[in-house]
Write a structure and sequence with these properties.
The chain has helices at 18-27, 32-38, 72-75, 122-125, 142-157, 165-184, 189-222, 228-236, and strands spanning 2-5, 10-13, 29-30, 55-60, 82-85, 103-107, 109-110, 115-119, 242-243, 245-248. The protein is an alpha+beta fold. It has 2 domains: 2-126 and 230-248, no CATH class; 129-226, no CATH class. The longest helix has 34 residues, at 189-222.
Amino acid sequence: MEYNYNEETLLHSVGFNLGRFVSVLKYGILSFNMAQNLGIKYTKNYLPDRQREDVISTVKMSLVDEEDIYSAYNLYIKNGISFIIEDVMPIEMSIMYHRRNDEVLVKDNIFLNNIVGIYLPKEYSNTTLDKLPIIPKNITKYDYLFNIVMDYIFYLKSYNAIFDKELINTYFKEIFLIHKALYTSKNNILDTKELISDYKDVLEDLNSYLSEVTYETFKKILRKNVTLKDIVLYLSNNCLPIYELLGRKEVLNEKLPS
């Protein structure tokens, strides 16, 4: 099904993090400060930043340039579950807020009645959960990575997920040591590149493990090979329409009678 967006339509991605997805269905989309003040987990979809703690990053579809590989649309909307938002006014952005040409910011929160649908990129819709990354690949801050994973584990355990605690600890020990080597010692360029490569390898292994546990957990519940679309339908309980295509709404200019 295709959603025909207009000049003011916004989208907000939560990646493939099902905990964040469910949180939005329950609370709406919250800024970092709002989530912290309410004691709500899973809603933070970005690295905490003092300049952006009271705003929500969204993509304004009328600003999207699909040929810009670094656009927020190509980096985030096309690589995760997104919420379609209408009738919300972004704030005026100063230069310190601005990061990508199609990004606009919303102050504090986006209410549930402004979320009109869910967008799943067609190329991921029928992908099984064990093939979808839970952790964003661009995370480099250890504390933030740790919190994301612990929050996600906490969420999945509500569905009786079983985790290997020792394996999780091993991953984080490796990541911690790599971080320590990167930020506390003077490495030459080759050493730094090797450490970054090691970090990516461990992060990929951790991601694969979390994805596999996610898949096995919901496979037991749904008794099938669970795809992204399957789990979104199950968790949302059909409360919002699901779209796999986005198209610009045509505006017809009717001729006035002469």
